[in-house]
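Example record

Each entry pairs one chain with its bound ligand, heme C.
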Amino acid sequence: MSARSVAAGLLLMPLLGASSAAIADDGVDRLTASQAKYILGCGGCHGIDGVSNSRLVPDLRDQVGFFFNSQAGRDYLVRVPNVAFYSTSDQDLTDILNFMVFQLGRASIPAGAKPYANAEVARLRKRPLNETSLVDYRRQLIESLSVSHAAPGGIYAYGSVDYQKK
Ligand code: HEC
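Structure tokens for the complex follow.
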């Protein structure tokens, strides 16, 4: 190695060292790709970490996984119109839904729950729940699920005015 290339290497080393240290330790939290997709498409209403106005928009955090206790509940999460009609690819929607259930809904997922598969999401989003009362559909789903599974308390917050009228 010539003296010149050794000198060039020595000059570059601290520069490279400094820049990689800056990337690793700049105090800024990085988003995962799925998290970024969720925030872009859903976070405006549901909140960055899955909680916003719980009475008007259902909480997702530590709650949404409850629906994984039945096949109908699992299907429901994809068939909600805001989800089914979200204009993105099946793969992106699958990533968003798995982020939503397994990261945001973490504490509420039943043991052994399997992530959504791309083909499953593609199939279910073709059957959106847009010709039914969503509030009634959701209430019936929760009632039938809570016979055998303890529902997270916050699940009743959404549409709570309707629940009180009952
Ligand atoms: C414009 C606001 C808005 C956006 C954007 C939105 N949602 Fe929702 N979401 C709601 C509301 C309001 C409900 C309650 C049912 C309804 O009226 O659609 C809901 C219901 C849901 C439910 C049912 C939860 C439950 O407890 O019953 C899920 C799951 C869901 N949304 C996921 C998503 C995902 C994933 C996205 C992004 C792809 C998304 N939403 C985008 C407002 C929104």
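Residues 10-21 have pLDDT under 50 and may be disordered.
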